[in-house]
Amino acid sequence: MLRADNLGVPHGFLDAAQSDAHALQLAVGNLPTVFVKQVHSAEAIAVDAPFPKDEWPEVDAMATATPGLALAIVTADCAPILLADEGAGVIGAAHAGWRGAQGGIVAAVVEQMVSLGAQAGRIAAAIGPTIAQASYEVGTDMRTHFDAADHDLFRETGPGKWHFDLESYVARQLAAAGVNSVRPLGLDTYTEAPRFHSYRRATHRAEPTTGRQISLIALPE
């Protein structure tokens, strides 16, 4: 299990085997844990208790100020983001694929944390295992969705072919939202098999694409 050195609260990025075993206690003990139905949106909500599984809201980020509660995000190439303002007692978690990131999911989760008493400049964030630029080939059609100021995150590799740096894009958006402490873990889900699940790798190999990593963060009671 991976941890960042800047969050200051219980958290962890589980690997594939730990996630498959649903070993949440490795990161946050036996705390009640909030899951949501992730849909590649830019929607973030504040939570104070887990939802029944058949009532998971369709959002991609959440924040809480409730002690003794954990937040969980699942990913398999997209970027898992864990956030904390330890002093204010506010945490957040977000799922950022390129659509959600481009749509504003990073700013949305920071805004929810601030609404609960956090200060953007005190928030620390960590970006867990995600697909790296070298593994993330995209087309010109995707690049056109991004502002020219972010075109430096696309490396041209052939006619109409680019490699996109999702991790750096998320880090850039966190900085733009006022987050000063950002730790990208720099781990590529695509190349590190079997350590991590990768939707793109599984698709390329005609393997099942259902595997997901779980990332968790909690407020101590």
From TrEMBL:
Top-level taxon: Bacteria
Keyword list, A-Z: Hydrolase, Metal-binding, Transferase, Zinc
Keyword GTP-binding annotated: no
Keyword Membrane: no
CDD domains: YfiH (cd16833)
Organism in which the protein naturally occurs: Aurantiacibacter gilvus
InterPro entries in UniProt: Cu_polyphenol_OxRdtase, Cu_polyphenol_OxRdtase_sf, Cytotoxic_necrot_fac-like_cat
Similarity annotation: Belongs to the purine nucleoside phosphorylase YfiH/LACC1 family.
Substrates-to-products reaction catalysed: S-methyl-5'-thioadenosine + phosphate = 5-(methylsulfanyl)-alpha-D-ribose 1-phosphate + adenine; adenosine + phosphate = alpha-D-ribose 1-phosphate + adenine; adenosine + H2O + H(+) = inosine + NH4(+); inosine + phosphate = alpha-D-ribose 1-phosphate + hypoxanthine
Gene name as annotated: pgeF
Pfam families: Cu-oxidase_4 (PF02578)
Protein name per Swiss-Prot or TrEMBL: Purine nucleoside phosphorylase
